[in-house]
Amino acid sequence: MLAEIKLDNSVKVEVVAKLQKYFQDELQQEIGSFDAEFLLDFFSKEVGGFYYNQGLADSLKSFESTMEGVGESIYQLEKETD
């Protein structure tokens, strides 16, 4: 089982501020930093794994693409033989 997804404190502060701004701008509702942090923790626990797994899948795709390029580069280095 994977460890819990945790954000650096500075990142968490930034995301909490973004949540507060979203609630104010889009829902015309003020939420305190405690409530926003609670909401962030909920989303991290309940849906964070989906984003994490997508990030892994995207990384794997990028790696595979890079390895294809390496394979092609190596193939181009081959010498003709008789």
Quick overview:
This protein has 82 residues and is mainly α. Helices cover 77% and strands 0% of the residues. It is built from 2 helices and no strands.
Helix/strand layout:
Elements lengths: L8 H19 L5 H44 L6
Which structural category fits the helices and strands? mainly alpha
Number of continuous helical runs: 2
Number of strands: 0
Taking pLDDT < 50 over at least 5 consecutive residues as the criterion, the unreliable ranges are none
Q: Give the ordered list of helices and strands.
A: HH
Distance between the termini: 54 Å
**Over the alpha carbons, how many angstroms does the gyration radius reach?**
22 Å
**How is the biggest beta sheet arranged?**
none
Mean pLDDT: 92
Helix content: over 70%
Overall, the morphology is elongated
Residues in β-strands, percent = under 5%
Describe what this molecule looks like in 3D.
The structure is a single chain. By secondary structure, this protein is mainly α. It contains 2 helices and no strands. The chain has helices spanning 9-27, 33-76. Helix 1 crosses helix 2 (33-76). The longest helix has 44 residues, at 33-76. The protein is elongated.
Salient structural properties:
elongated, 82 residues, mainly alpha, 2 helices
